[in-house]
Amino acid sequence: MRIPTFILSGFLGSGKTTLLLQMLEETKKRGLQPGVIMNELGRQDVDGQLISEQSEVQIERLLDGCVCCDKKAELDGALRLLLQRQPDFIFIELTGVANPEEIADILAESFRNEVENKRIITVLDAEHTLDYNSIFAADRQLVRTLRRQIEVADLILVNKKDLASSQALAKIEKVVRKQNEHAEILYTVHSEINVASLLEGITPHKNLTNPAEEFTNTPIPEPSYSHIKTITLPIPESISFNKPELEQFLRHWCPQLVRMKGYIRIDEKVELFQFAGGRMNWTTSVYPGTPYLVVIGMQLDKNQMLAEWTAFCESMNVTMKSS
């Protein structure tokens, strides 16, 4: 029996992981055991940690690059590891700059007897989708990839509809229909949809042992696109930030950034920090490891950003010692 597989696509910060969390919650209600492949641009696994905090699933992490830019060996290996565990179905959450068509081709070419590609789901950020062509005009490959995410989708979520005008939503629908005449379009807030309908017909087929086992992280090469860069900023264990001061510092980088995420100690408690679409959000977390922050943006100067970050952290440390 072939294992159903869902590919989750969409640009950075659109709401893919939020959708995945909802789907995992529904699988738990149904007694299903999913396998998850998560691909992150950065060296640190923010979204994978978030998934682990809220659900017990088999996760294979592909870090430090975009899987569709590799020789396909990493995805091949991750899938074979999950298939050995025989999950009821598999979610593949791609980076925001991946072409889902390439992943679907891998499934069709190398795993046609093992998996069945049920749907390619693309999540769009309603607040910013119309601006991407101009924002990323210098990176034609990225613009083509974002267009392809729409063209090959079976289901398109126009997410964050509450942050866009009715006129903008109408324009987005025109753009989508120009590129994809057949996909179902849903307008959502926090990626909320009727998840049960997506999983209809999938039933448990095996009782698994050690369902929460995680496989070894697999680093992959630098992606082929040239303008989107990722930097991981270390955070000294001794520092507990003041939230307003930290946000004020990070905002001077915002024009260059499309995404920030990480685990940061605020007033002696670790919180999950996320930046997308110009908005900063904080969520309580039980993350037990060393804090860090991942920044993703256009043509970032790594040395300059690290120098500025180090100086800021040192100033925070001095403030703590003197207070």
UniProtKB/TrEMBL annotation:
Residues 240-311 form the CobW C-terminal domain. PANTHER family: COBW DOMAIN-CONTAINING PROTEIN (PTHR13748:SF62), COBW-RELATED (PTHR13748). Belongs to the SIMIBI class G3E GTPase family. ZNG1 subfamily. Keywords: Chaperone, Hydrolase, Nucleotide-binding. It catalyses: GTP + H2O = GDP + phosphate + H(+). Residues 4-186 form the CobW/HypB/UreG nucleotide-binding domain. Gene3D superfamilies: CobW-like, C-terminal domain, P-loop containing nucleotide triphosphate hydrolases. InterPro entries: CobW-likC_sf (IPR036627), CobW-like_C (IPR011629), CobW/HypB/UreG_nucleotide-bd (IPR003495), P-loop_NTPase (IPR027417), Zinc-reg_GTPase_activator (IPR051316). It comes from the Bacteria. SUPFAM superfamilies: Hypothetical protein YjiA, C-terminal domain, P-loop containing nucleoside triphosphate hydrolases. This is CobW family GTP-binding protein.
